[in-house]
Amino acid sequence: MESLPRGRHGLPRKYIVEHQRERLIAAIADSLDERGYDHTTVAEISGRAGVSKSDFYAHFESKDECFFAAYDTAVKRLRGEVLAACKGRRDWAEGVCAGLGAALDWLADGPAQANLLLVEGLRAGPGIYGRFQKAIESFVPHLRDGAPRGTPAGRPPEAADEAVVGGIASLLGRRVLAGEAESLDRFFPELAEFALTPYLGLAEARRIISSR
User: Fold this and answer.
1) Model pTM score
2) Do 75 and 66 meet the contact criterion of CB atoms below 8 Å apart?
3) Could you list the pLDDT tens digit for every one of the 212 residues in the chain?
4) Where along the chain do the CATH 1.10.357 domains lie?
5) Which CATH number fits domain 1-60: 2.60.40.2470, 3.30.465.60, 1.10.10.60, 3.30.950.10?
């Protein structure tokens, strides 16, 4: 994000404060992507954001608090992209594919955000793991809602819903670690197959994916 103009600009104080906070959140994501959590400092974050250290501490008590805010913001934006893509889809499988495609596109367009959510979020210690788990759980009801009864063998247990969402996150995290964040969208077929197969069976999952 661009810095605000220097000198007198007549901008409302509330706008200035919100803009500073957004820049700090963007800056920590970029720093984490380039330097990793351990080498990201308050000075590095504030410098990237064009914000003084004193202004940083007016927004956040610590690097950890800034990280938590950036993580929560990224989860909220990703969820918004997914739900917007699913909205109005009457067919469950089509909704799952649309939501997954939107998530992959958003992450590929913002590799720093992908790294923040899928890699650094698990390196930052126990304070963030609860947020990661909560984020995974927040997507589960949307996968479960309207899901078919399952294959001829029966409906998968409820634990499978969380396993599917968590498994996708794990697979994507490995791709990000491999330096493939900007091309996450190309893994749509295998991830869609992974998501649909427990509910529809492999043959039907592949038929749906191939018809898109």
Assistant:
1) 0.86
2) no
3) 545 445 444 455 665 678 899 999 999 999 999 999 889 999 999 999 999 999 999 999 999 999 999 999 999 999 999 999 999 888 999 999 999 999 999 999 999 999 999 998 777 666 778 888 899 999 999 998 888 876 665 677 778 899 999 999 999 999 999 999 999 999 999 999 999 999 998 999 999 999 98
4) 71-210
5) 1.10.10.60
40 burial type by CB count under 10 A (0-12 exposed, 13-18 middle, 19+ buried): buried
Q: What distance lies between CA 111 and its chain's CA centroid?
A: 10
Q: Which two tokens stand for residue 55?
A: 């202004």
- Please state which architecture CATH assigns to domain 71-210: Orthogonal Bundle (1.10)
Q: Report the C-alpha gap between 200 and 93 in whole angstroms.
A: 9
Other CB atoms within 10 A of residue 3 CB: 11
